Structures are given as structure tokens and as C-alpha cells.
Amino acid sequence: MMPLTQLVLASHNAGKLKELQAMLGDAVQVRSVAEFSSEEPHESGLTFIENAILKARHAARVSGLPALADDSGLAVDFLGGAPGIYSARYADGQGDAANNAKLLEALRDVPDDRRGAQFVCALALLQHAEDPLPILCEGLWHGSILHEPRGEQGFGYDPLFWVPERNCSSAELPAIEKNRLSHRARAMAVLKQRLGLA
């Protein structure tokens, strides 16, 4: 692996860009794919890893830079891993509140001991668009699903995700704490080790 000085992040999300830049530190400049293209690749993969690779290939192709992509979501044990790769569009693209409402409905009469879940993050780093050997890293954050939302921080399913080691929901954690514990933080820690940045 050549030393990395800059890479393109396969996301138009400014919050995610800032979060990943903070995790990588000053050694690597992270640029957004939005600088190069407004087109979003079609996420046709059936796994988090496949979708991360698809997004990274697209970003590397339009930018000419090494590309990093993440694909993340929530996998609920009782629902066989759903919403999984469809987490962001679980309620047909109607947003976080609708996604959370649909999840609560799906788990309406499910007892606490069967509400286990994990946030999943798959990262793919490609040197270039045709890279046959992407670096793949995964992070899991284990918890369970509450019966009602709690907390005002975060986004997505954070208000429903119970973090047992902190005795609160993900949406009740300060951002700095969440960025140390989260699935994305865990996957990034593995990536930094692989890149010799840890």
C-alpha cells in the first residue's frame, strides 16, 4: 500500500466527512466526492461490504484519488438482520422518524431479551478504481432496541439503540463519546492499524 496523503470519501454527507477526518487526523486529507461529482452510485449490493466497494469504486473513478467508502446500518436479531442494508430507506425514504416508527411497530410485542441488535459499519478503501484488492474493515456495536425513543443527540436509529455499557441510548451520549464507541469508530480503528496510522 502506497502512503496515503489524501483520499476521497464516497459520501455527500458533510457530517460524515468531518467525523472521518477527525478520526484519521492530520496525516491524511479527506475530500468529499461532492467536489468531483453529484451522481450517487446505485447501491445494488446485497451486503454492507458489497455496497461499500461499489461506492468506493465510483468515488475513485470520478476523482482519480484513493477512495474510502462506508456502508452502515442497523441489524436487529429478531428481524433476521433487518433493516440491514436498507436501514436508511426502511420506511420508503420517509426519514428517520418514520424508520424508527416502523421498527418499533415491527418489534411491538417482542420481549426485552429478544431485542438484541448491532450497528454495523463496513469500510472499503481502494487505491484506484480498478483496485482488485480493496482494504476491508468492519465494526460492530452491540446493543438492543428500546420500546420508545430516548435522547436528542445523534441521528438515524440512535434514539432507539440501547448502549448497555453506558446504560443509556446512543442518542443520550455526547458526540465525542459516541465517536469513540460507535461501529464507525471501531471500523476506523482497524483501518488506521492497517494503514500504520494508529
From TrEMBL:
The molecular function GO annotations come to: ITP diphosphatase activity
Fetch the InterPro entries from UniProt.
dITP/XTP_pyrophosphatase, ITPase-like_fam, RdgB/HAM1
> What does the UniProt keyword field contain?
Hydrolase, Magnesium, Metal-binding, Nucleotide metabolism, Nucleotide-binding
Q: Where does Mg(2+) bind?
A: 71
Asked if the keyword Membrane belongs to this entry, the reply reads no
Q: Which reaction does it catalyse?
A: dITP + H2O = dIMP + diphosphate + H(+); XTP + H2O = XMP + diphosphate + H(+); ITP + H2O = IMP + diphosphate + H(+)
Q: Which cofactor does it need?
A: Mg(2+)
- Nucleotide-binding in keyword set: yes
Query: Looking at the record's lineage, which domain of life comes first?
Result: Bacteria
User: Could you tell me which CDD domains the record lists for this protein?
Assistant: HAM1
Enzyme Commission number(s) of this protein: 3.6.1.66
- Enzymatic class: hydrolase
Entry annotation: catalytic residues? 71 (proton acceptor)
Gene3D superfamilies noted in UniProt: 3.90.950.10
UniProt cross-references to SUPFAM superfamilies, sorted A to Z = ITPase-like
How many cofactor units bind, and how? Binds 1 Mg(2+) ion per subunit.
Q: Which residues are listed for substrate binding in this entry?
A: 11-16, 72, 155-158, 178, 183-184
Subunit annotation: Homodimer.
Instruction: Tell me the protein family, please.
Output: Belongs to the HAM1 NTPase family.
- Per its database record, what is this protein's job? Pyrophosphatase that catalyzes the hydrolysis of nucleoside triphosphates to their monophosphate derivatives, with a high preference for the non-canonical purine nucleotides XTP (xanthosine triphosphate), dITP (deoxyinosine triphosphate) and ITP. Seems to function as a house-cleaning enzyme that removes non-canonical purine nucleotides from the nucleotide pool, thus preventing their incorporation into DNA/RNA and avoiding chromosomal lesions.
Specify the protein name: dITP/XTP pyrophosphatase
- Taxonomic placement: Bacteria, Pseudomonadati, Pseudomonadota, Gammaproteobacteria, Pseudomonadales
Gene name for this UniProt entry: rdgB
